């Protein structure tokens, strides 16, 4: 196992890495929405919207539901 692969695998397990992935998904969704508007294709628009919704809701779901600290 190389140092580079260890850093890559550990980075995406951190909160910053997960938020980076969410940002990348949002940018991909934006590109899909714009492509769908340009080509008048509702399928691309809907897929982009769902991807953007999932990526934007990741952080609140992670904080308030998945990793909720119980008192």
Q: What is the mean pLDDT?
A: 85
Number of domains: 1
Strand content: under 5%
The beta-strand count equals 0
Distance between the termini: 40 Å
Main sheet makeup: none
List the total number of helices.
3
Regions with pLDDT < 50 over 5+ consecutive residues?
none
Question: What global shape is seen?
Answer: flat
Order of helices and strands: HHH
- The radius of gyration computed from the alpha-carbon positions, rounded to a whole number of angstroms, is 16 Å
How would you sum up this structure in a few lines?
This protein is 83% helix and 0% strand.
Word description of this protein:
Keywords: Membrane, Transmembrane, Transmembrane helix. The chain is mainly α and 71 residues long. The protein has one domain (3-66). Helix content is 83%, strand content 0%. The longest helix is centred in the middle third of the chain and has 25 residues, at 15-39. The protein is flat and about 45 Å long.
Give descriptors for this structure.
71 residues; mainly alpha; 3 helices; 0% strand; flat; membrane; transmembrane helix; transmembrane
Write the layout of secondary structure elements.
Layout: H1 3-11, H2 15-39, H3 42-66
Helix pairs in contact: 2-3
Transmembrane segments: 21-38, 44-66
Keywords: Membrane, Transmembrane, Transmembrane helix
